[in-house]
Description:
- This protein has helices at residues 17-26, 43-60, 72-76, 90-103, 113-137, 150-160, 172-183, 217-227, 230-236, 242-257, 268-271, 273-278, 286-308, 323-334, 380-402, 405-414, 421-434, and strands at 5-10, 33-39, 65-69, 81-84, 142-145, 166-168, 192-199, 202-210, 262-263, 338-345, 358-366, 369-372.
- By secondary structure, the chain is of the alpha/beta class.
- It has a six-stranded parallel sheet with strand order 3-2-1-4-5-6, with helices on both faces. Strands 7-8-9 form a three-stranded antiparallel sheet.
- α4 packs antiparallel against α13, α6 packs across α15 and α9 packs antiparallel against α10 (242-257).
- Residues 110-111, 148, 170-172, 286, 290 line the site of 6-O-phosphono-alpha-D-glucopyranose (G6P).
Amino acid sequence: MEKKYAITIAGGGSTFTPGICLLLLTHMDRFPVRKIMFYDNNAKRQEVIAKACQIYLRENAPEVEFGYTTDPETAFTDIDFVMCHIRVGLYAMREHDEKIPLKYGVLGQETCGPGGIAYGMRSIGGVLEVLDYMEKYSPDAYMLNYSNPAAIVAEATRRLRPNSKILNICDMPIGLEEKMARMVGLKSRKELNINYYGLNHFGWWHQIEDKDGNDLMPQIREQIKTYGFAKAALDMNPNAEPSWVDTFTKAKDVYALDPDTIPNTYLKYYLFPDYVVEHSNPEITRANEVMNHREKNVFTLCQSIIDKNTSEGSGFKADAHAEYIVDLACAIAKNTKEKMLLIVPNEGAIENFDRTAMVEIPCIVGKNGYERVVQGAIPQFQKGLMEQQVSVEKLTVAAWIEGSYQKLWQAITLSKTVPSARIAKLILDDFIEVNKGYWPELK
Ligand code: NAD
Ligand code: G6P
Ligand code: MN
């Protein structure tokens, strides 16, 4: 009989949980699931999401065992995969991450600049905790982590849990590849053969071909030069949120800096920080948008399913964009050898870059883990930027491990988004105040 898999979703109360839970059900033909368990450390938040999913499963997939819990032993016993998307400190802390730097004229972003560093200092402990529970109760399981900031989390697990079965992955390149496939008239990004190098939220495509080996870069460049990713994004989703459309459009200016490559949209924060600050409202940031829309919508929908005791006609739907997570689980479970972008120790894959850096590069994924696809030597421009940013990430993790104020001050100072050590210190001291109980004590 074909093996069926047991999955724990860590961060059961996440806004992404219903979409991912339903997505698992739509891929049962290639990735059969026997059990789905939700785990969160916030019982009240998780309960709303879990009860709604329970009703959906009862109506649509009664054969799948389902449970939700805050008890680690129940959550992590007898499982094959942990899909981990936790947010330590919830959106309330994301709001601080974004608003404190803005007080000092520095951009406020979830994963980039000082905000990402602050979030990293909260996330490391949370992700390690989940990883340790998994290893204690299901030592053979794999953790697929997409909790942010993925770059810092990945560096922390490299240093502190080097032998753990954890794969760090991000959806941003996947979403951008979908847009590039659209630009050249292909149905899906799976029809592209790409090469890419960088750090998480900090990378570049340097080769894009179709499956016959035809170079697609010239056609893609033509579009990016004029519209960034915005035209393709709006063609695919006319209701795309304005803040994302702005990011997709700005990619054309990021591209202009190095027309040999296609940039990840997140580079706008490092290369045009003054533009980002000018276009930010220090009173209303992305955290507010997400709280007022995604969070509210997901929880309202779940509550209405609970109240009606049925999911029929609710519009509850699978998150098709998260298909990459099923692809990754499938690659490991079924040895598909799919080429996927992962965040892994460099070890020479980028020839002229720190071997110990956690880099985002294509890997071939199978039942024994991943093999890196060598990317060769990178140009001076990218190398310079990446050396600075990887040092920010490494210093942040070192600060967390050692409880070092000095190293965290250095990390914030080194971020390309921060103008001086004086401003870095002001931001750091404010962060320490609001992160009490979340950060290790710094000396
Ligand atoms: P959310 O706040 O809605 O959900 C996160 C959940 O994690 C909450 O229910 C919270 O209680 C729980 N949690 C926090 N600390 C925990 C711990 N120590 N143990 C167990 N549960 C814990 O957040 P969201 O917006 O749905 O995002 C979830 C995560 O996914 C974030 O880290 C976000 O940045 C990340 N994300 C990553 C990608 C990617 O491409 N890498 C894409 C989207 C979202
Ligand atoms: C992309 C990134 C994620 C990030 C998310 C933020 O998907 O890859 O890492 O968490 O954007 O989206 P949000 O809607 O929460 O601002
Ligand atoms: Mn990401």
